[in-house]
């Protein structure tokens, strides 16, 4: 087998990421050597490979579905929004500059088509199959000329296209038909069919519509996936925070001890890697919610200030909302606060930023004895160390360089020398994303939080975040295996789009 497939969608958030991961996990369980690919990703949820390259977390999750290590080849272009009009461009894992949306789509994007096709070709030369994920919709006719992630990559690599539609939103038949009808004849030749996502109810009631859609387009449905809670793992967030992912949908498992533990996450602007708190929500009895008002911190046992692509902007937002004063009061009262990456920088005394915001000197909240200077070079590492007597691993993605001038070290090496972070009382800060996925460290941290909060909360002794993630990926594979026409899907991946697919007018505008 030496095949490929592009999973496109009628809209953003139609389910492309999870469907791609599900197909990858289904294939690898059949003995296929498979890899994921997304030419261009817009997300503030990113990950660092073992080679020190930054890619979207969705592609890292899909690589895990394939049971392989993620590499920069799997996501050659990553756009990290810094506001409504501009993004940091990360090329092959390294930042290459900031560009406005007009500047990127006006010329830079199209020049990258050769690069992304080369990356895809290298993957296809190594793996039996490569399952590619599109972005947004392939029928964004205003962007088709410079497209490198949807039909641009499908045309360049002759990939068959499967269009996913979220029926839970409604209008899925019109979306399927309209997506095809707004593509050029050459693009339409590659659109093989459709996959319905998030269906609730009796599938037999849907079948007449699917038959009519087949008659109208000449393209079949490759399956109807039922709605399942808690499958929005490692989402791509664009410029907003989705509150429908794993943390937000999963029911809270009863606590092992007598009390639950309440965690409030400050929903700061340009929040990055909010997936850090998924590991907290995986613990039985831990309730995670996102908040944007100071009164919502009152009953929280732990407040998390997460990472952000705009540290100075997030700090101003916290002050405008009254959350900054609430955080300072919590710290003074020795009530637990955790700052991660940008959140750690916000909790410090002073920020010098001529890189990200170009705001110059800015006072932080002053609850940790830390001074931060933004460097032009981005730190991208996969460190490991010790904290609270437990092994801890993480990854770093930041321009801010922290100078710790007091308090206790948070994370140390095996010899006790400080590696990262700071602790004063019940306020902690670290640049390490993903540290809470280390099970022993997470349990030790939650025990400290519970003691400080006066809660009779006991971490479960056997929660394995890695095992829970594997279970989720297997659930995605099961969805494909049980609810998609896998024989037809196999032929599509191996042989490409069927020949003679009809053109649906009007096609792309001239």
Counting DSSP H or I runs of 4 or more residues, the number of helices is 16
Average pLDDT metric: 92
Gyration radius, in Å: 23 Å
Which class do the helix and strand fractions yield? Answer: alpha/beta
Low-confidence stretches: 237-250
Q: State the end-to-end CA separation.
A: 38 Å
Quaternary structure state of the chains depicted: single chain
Strand content: 25-35%
The major sheet is characterized as:
6 strands, parallel
Query: What is the general shape?
Result: globular
Summarize the structure.
With 510 residues, this protein is of the alpha/beta class.
Question: How would you explain this protein's 3D organization?
Answer:
This protein is of the alpha/beta class and 510 residues long. The chain contains 16 helices and 28 strands. The strands form eight sheets. It has a six-stranded parallel β-sheet with strand order 2-9-1-10-11-12, with helices on both faces. It has a six-stranded mixed β-sheet with strand order 15-13-16-18-28-27. Strand 27 and strand 28 (427-430) form a beta hairpin. Helix 1 crosses helix 15. The radius of gyration is 23 Å and the shape is globular. The two termini are 38 Å apart.
